[in-house]
Amino acid sequence: MGAEAGIEGAEFDGAHLFGGTPPAVDEFAGAEASNLTFALNFASGDLGQNQRRWIVSPYYSQAFDGASSENRGVISTDNPGGYFEWRELGVRVEHEMAINDTWSWTSGLRWARIDHEANLADESGNFLIKEMDGRRIGLSLGVNAAITDNIAAVSRLGYSWVDLDETAECTGPSADACTPSPAASADDTTELDGFDFGLSLRYTF
């Protein structure tokens, strides 16, 4: 058993899909996030030279920096420096194989629930405030280096697919004067995908 803490980054691009009638319209959407991630690691055994093991890691991830963007026809919205929240609660399943006493590599997948909120300012200065929740699934490859018998540096490079359902949306001249938008609908979704990377330290008890 062990624990892991680190920094993750991701940049996603995709589309916002408007549900209901008239038929859905695709509009550009994107998100980039820098997260602090904390995990518990449950391994199938110790890792020696030429050995393999499985690691199951429940994790929590919280953005400390990020931005969302949308392009709805002639109106482009983004939130440089605006309010941005991206939280994940999920699990990673990884297969680790030792290369030698110091180095190992991993391949794995992740699944998570996402809670996402963002304030986006359009070209006229109005705010578009969105709340969404959804799911993320991803694949990754990584290289790890043992620092001591109990501590290892862990790296991951992956690709993820994100599906978000809109739960609330409002527009107004400021974040404090925001009225619900009729465009907000449980049928509205945002589909994103892109690369992600992470660096962390793993401690084995």
How does the SSE layout of this entry go?
Blueprint: E1 2-17, E2 26-43, E3 52-72, E4 75-78, E5 84-98, E6 103-121, E7 127-146, E8 151-174, E9 177-180, E10 189-204
Antiparallel strand pairs: 1-2, 1-10, 2-3, 3-4, 3-5, 5-6, 6-7, 7-8, 8-9, 8-10
* Level-1 CATH class name: Mainly Beta
Low-confidence stretches: none
Mean pLDDT: 84
Shape: elongated
Estimate the strand proportion: over 45%
Q: Tell me the strand order in the biggest sheet.
A: 1-2-3-5-6-7-8-10
Any guess at the CATH architecture? Beta Barrel
Largest sheet: 8 strands, antiparallel, barrel
| Number of H/I helices | 0
The overall number of domains is: 1
In total, the number of strands is 10
Share of helix, binned? under 10%
N-to-C span: 6 Å
Put the structure in a nutshell.
The chain is mainly beta and 205 residues long. Helix content is 0%, strand content 77%.
